[in-house]
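Appendix C reproduces, verbatim, an entry submitted by the partner laboratory led by Prof. M.T., so that reviewers can inspect both the input and the predicted structure.
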Amino acid sequence: KQLRGAFGEVQLENLVRDSLPHNSYAFQKTLTNNNRVDCIINLDYPPGPICIDSKFPLEHYRSYIKATNQNEKNMLLKQFSFSVLKHAHDISSKYLVPGETGEIAIMFLPSESIHAEIKINLQDVVSKSREKKIIICGPDSLMILLNAITGIMRNAKMNEVASKIQTQVSFLLKDLERLNDRVGKLKS
């Protein structure tokens, strides 16, 4: 279990490092409520810092996949569902801290097959997770989300730079007006 958890965290770290600027995230950060999150992406409000926690509910998933009869499959799918919902609840209660983090957090599943199974067969789990402000992502969907966040960061930086340029142009225009006034006074 620990090795699987470490695998998920390493995969998460690699995806984040490959997608975001190095000063925009932190790994294994301890929040003020003494909970340590796998990754936090530092964004301004809104949306605020986004916590990402890696989960790997493999036991219940494997049991469900290996089941041969439909009754057993249904029972194991429910157990798998409860396992994922428990993770969503844990993330919601630990990593959504008013005033410190944003209003959403991400549950990262390092397996596309587990992520697909949840999206296809456990729509109620997806809905209940969203109600708890938890977004469930596999590697591919996390990569898309991180690329969108990169675009948002780039846009915010461009807006900040554009604002500074506008301020400097305004100062330049005032200097040109003063120069024009002085040239006019020299002529007269």
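The chain is about 65% helix and 15% strand. Additional entries are available on request from the coordinating office.
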